[in-house]
Structures are given as structure tokens and as C-alpha cells.
Amino acid sequence: PMHVAGFVLFACTAALCVQRNLAQSVSVLPSDTSTFALSTSKSNFSFTSKKSTYSLSSDSSLSFQFDATQMGQECMSDVTPEEGNFTRGTVFTFPSSIHITNDNALAKIEFSVALLFGTSSDFPKNSQITSAWVQFESSDDKSDPLTIEIRGELVSSPSDIFISNSTQGSEFNVTSRLLRSTRETVIWQPSAWTKGSFQNTPNISSLIQEIISQPLWQPGNAIVLLLNRSQSDRSTATRSARGPRSTPYFASLNVIAFVAPSPS
After folding, report:
1. Is the pTM of this model over 0.85?
2. What is the residue-wise DSSP string for 21-80?
3. Sign of the CA dihedral 226, 227, 228, 230?
4. Contacts of 73 (CB under 8 A, 6+ apart)
5. What is the Cβ-side half-sphere exposure of residue 31, based on CA atoms within 13 angstroms?
6. Model confidence over 99-146: pLDDT tens digits?
């Protein structure tokens, strides 16, 4: 369990749980779509979910946690044969480590990272995002100063990153998404990382709000986040997180949203 801003997020294996603060809890066996309806003397609330984990507070704030379902890290540098058998634009989708923003061993090779949270971002369309962040698990000890830019892909229904039955994606399938990125950018200057520690981005609620406020965005559509070294950062500093080859839970998106209750 994870405690966040007064809410408790439950990752239920046998059931999908909703926790009502100081009131009631409802537990339903998971299905493709489950609908929950909660009612109190002050308000009524109903919500349709697709296996996401969330909790509801007495002030109609919802707390969600979504695991990334796809990722890609694209090589942005020219690579010599001695450094690797790949080229600029190659996208790796099943690495042991996510390199933010270059390879530990090959510091000259810069990467751009995309994280896709697919078909689980099913909070209501009228949500007001009050807080959001991504959590990683560090795979190495790193402390050099680094400045990262975080953006979102500003499309209502993003395409997949990976190619079926492959550990690589289409060439330039990460950096091409920067051409249609959010107007908002969040700057991240991570502190020192120690191997095995959990590390959070800053608040990226402005990015999530911009994405879900698109007219054609619908609950259940995927959300893609993009991470790159800031153009003002001329260092070779990096951070490394566990990737999908080492854990299925390589990144989680945590969102706290306010949802106006339905009329009683």
C-alpha cells in the first residue's frame, strides 16, 4: 500500500476496491468494466472503472494509480560500431533499465523516453487534476545534477510505442511525439538516487489536465508522457530506473482529482 495526501491506494489482487473515508467500502470482483455507486446524505457518486485502483474521499476527491503498460527509449545520438549495433532513431521497448537521459556505460549516447499508460486512465472527463506524479524505482546510484523536461503527448488517443513481437519500436517513435506535445512543460531536477529507492517526479497535474481537457479525449484513452534532458543542461548526468525487462511495474502514474458529485 502507498499513502498519498491522506488517501490510501490499494492494489487489490482478488478484487478491485474502493475505499470511502469514514463511511463505507465497496469491493467488486474485477471485470472488463465495473460500475460503482456510492451515496451519502450529502451527495451521490457513481463511476465506471476499467480495473484501475482508486479511492474516494468525503470531499469527492479521487486518488488513482495506473501502471505504465508500454515504454520506449529512443537513441538521439550518432552511434559508432564500437558503441552498439543500433542507430540514431532506434527505439528500445523492453530494456532492463530506463535511462533518463543517457546510458550509464555509454555517456555519449543520449536517450528520449516515452511512457504510455494505456486504457486505464479512466477518471471522469470533468475531473479537475489537483496533483499528479510518476514514480520510478532506481536501478543505480546517481547523484550528479540533472535537469529533465517532462511533457505529454497532446493527442486524444495516442498510438502504441512497440511493434508486435519485437523489443523495438518504429524508428523515431518517441521524438516524433514531441512535435505534438503539450504546451505545458514541467522541469524536474532530481535529487540523488540510490539503487532500489523509489523516486517521484514533481507535480505534473498541468500536463494531465491539458491532455484530458482535449475535446475528443475520453475516459479509458491512453496517456503518454515524454522525458528528455533540458536543452539548457549540457552535462552527461543521468538517472536509471528499473525497466520492463526487470519488473512489470516499471513506472506508475499517481493522480489526485476532484470530481463534482452528481445531484442528489
Report:
1. no
2. TTS-EEEE---SSEEEEEE-SS-EEEEEESS-EEEE-TTSEEEEEEE--EEEEEE-S---
3. positive
4. 91, 92, 95, 98, 99, 111, 112, 113, 114, 174
5. 8
6. 998 865 555 788 999 999 986 566 777 789 999 999 999 999 999 999
In angstroms, the CA 132 to CA 64 distance is 9
From the CB of residue 19, how many other CB atoms can be counted at a distance below 10 Å?
Answer: 18
φ and ψ of 65, to 5 deg: -140, 125
d(CA 149, CA 113): 11
Integer Cα distance of 66 and 56 in angstroms: 16
Q: Name, of 52-61, 116-125, 205-214, the range with top average pLDDT.
A: 205-214
Q: In whole angstroms, what is the distance from residue 42 CA to residue 210 CA? A: 30
- Three-state DSSP class for residue 125: coil
Instruction: Tell me what the mean pLDDT of segment 169-193 comes to.
Output: 94
> Do residues 209 and 182 make contact, with C-beta atoms less than 8 angstroms apart?
no
Report strand pairing: 97-100 vs 128-137. Answer: unpaired
What is the predicted pLDDT for the residue at 247?
93
DSSP 138: B
Distance, CA of 7 to chain centre:
19
Q: What is the pLDDT of residues 106-117, one digit of tens each?
A: 557 889 999 999
